[in-house]
Design a protein that fits this description.
The protein is α/β, with parallel strands linked by helices. The chain has one domain: P-loop containing nucleotide triphosphate hydrolases (Rossmann fold), CATH 3.40.50.300. The protein is built from twelve helices and twelve strands. A hairpin with a 2-residue loop joins strand 4 and strand 5. It is globular and about 70 Å long. The structure holds adenosine-5'-triphosphate (ATP) and magnesium ion. Adenosine-5'-triphosphate binds next to strand 2 and helix 1. It is a peripheral membrane protein. InterPro entries: AAA+_ATPase (IPR003593), ABC_transp_ATP-bind (IPR050319), ABC_transporter-like_ATP-bd (IPR003439), ABC_transporter-like_CS (IPR017871), Oligopep_ABC_C (IPR013563), P-loop_NTPase (IPR027417). Pfam families: ABC_tran, oligo_HPY.
Length: about 350
């Protein structure tokens, strides 16, 4: 986690107007009948050395967001700049030399590690693919990585099934670090682990971030863990960003009705606060991303819904320095000059990321 006192403000990741639509097909001819709008026009930045938390209910598009940014999917629209290089439309050949700088740690280390490869083979695989290291150099690097993630070097020739979940995740982290990445997408990296192990893995990720200057997109639906690890937090709902703010501002004073509802469900360790506070129970189901509402995506479940919400999608606007909310309740407090007109949308989205 970066030291807020001397916050570096260099943007490492810049996402603008990103859309990822998955085609929905039907019939034996697999005719396209629509799109699942997994990401529908999202823009944000991640600063070098920070952890941006990405939260939201299951299916809101968190994993898709992480995968598109790493160009594991081809985006439908929008741009992605990593360290100043636009990779949004880059082809496989252009992407290849850029891949080492951006890596992913997956949710389920069991499923993401090849069961037929040894630890050394798994950690060394990216080195084979992207470097010309000799065998000896490679083994040195593998040992160095095993040390970095707290794995005993004697385990190098063992197979994934011989390890506990936490140790397997350490292998996955070592593999992600092999090529000295700058940016790592951690997609629910602790969700499959025992609670007792979760803190160890999170501490390891934080420690590595400090030592190696890493930048994280930390995807999770564990809001307490995100509060612990993130510098800023983006809240997603049905393929769009509802709110993006510095961590303490978001948790202490959530502004979007969806963020308010989401946070009201987080257990509070202080019993006095726990009894005093109001839990907001949302009614209704999340609409299908293949058929989102015409207006605000949250309008079908929002306790504070207004007429305008049914017909106009609110843009993500900066309503306080560094704090962005996509909600008609705050239109009048939005940045001066915002009229809500379509031509303002792009400007606001740009502003949302300054
Ligand atoms: N490869 C794919 N093909 C078609 N639809 C997909 C694909 N991947 C994701 N989707 C759809 O996109 C939407 C967003 O999915 P995504 O996996 O990004 O959500 P998520 O927020 O990561 O959810 P979870 O918390 O359950 O991991 C869902 O409706 C999902 O069904
Ligand atoms: Mg996911």
């Amino acid at each position: 986690m970066l030291d807020r006192a001397d916050t570096p403000r260099r943007k490492l990741v810049e996402v603008r107007g990103l859309k990822m639509y998955f085609p929905v097909t039907a019939g034996v001819l697999r005719r396209k009948v629509g799109d699942v709008k997994a990401l529908d026009d999202i823009s944000f930045d991640i600063y070098e050395g920070e952890t941006l938390g990405l939260v939201g209910e299951s299916g809101c598009g968190k994993s898709t967001c992480g995968r598109v940014i790493l160009r594991l999917y081809d985006p439908t629209a929008g741009s992605i700049r990593i360290d100043g290089v636009d990779i949004g439309a880059a082809d496989a050949q252009t992407l290849r030399p850029l891949r080492p700088a951006m890596q992913m740690v997956f949710q389920d280390p069991q499923a993401s590690l090849n069961p037929r490869m040894t630890v050394a083979g798994i950690i060394g695989e990216p080195l084979d693919e992207h470097t010309q290291m000799s065998k000896a150099e490679k083994l040195d690097r593998i040992y160095e990585l095993m040390d970095a993630v707290g794995l005993n070097r004697n385990f190098a020739n063992r197979y994934p099934h011989e390890f506990s979940g936490g140790q397997r995740q350490r292998i996955g982290i070592a593999r992600a670090l092999a090529l000295n990445p700058k940016f790592i997408v951690c997609d629910e990296p602790i969700a499959a682990l025992d609670v007792s192990i979760q803190a160890q893995v999170v501490n390891l990720l934080e420690d590595l971030q400090d030592r190696l200057g890493l930048t994280y997109l930390f995807i999770s639906h564990d809001l307490s863990m995100v509060r612990h690890i993130a510098d800023r937090v983006a809240v997603m709902y049905l393929g769009r960003i509802a709110e993006l703010a510095p961590r303490d501002a978001l948790y202490d004073r959530p502004m979007h009705p969806y963020t308010q509802a989401l946070l009201s469900a987080v257990p509070e360790p202080d019993p006095e606060i726990e009894t005093a506070r109001k839990r907001i129970i949302l009614t209704g189901d999340v609409p299908s991303p293949a058929n989102p509402p015409k207006g605000c995506n949250f309008c079908t479940r929002c306790p504070r819904v207004m007429d305008i919400c049914q017909s106009v999608k609110p843009a993500l606007r900066e309503i306080e320095p560094g704090r962005f909310v996509a909600c008609h309740l705050y239109e009048t407090t939005a940045a001066a000059g915002s009229t809500g007109a379509p031509e303002d949308h792009e400007r606001n989205q740009q502003g949302a990321t300054q």
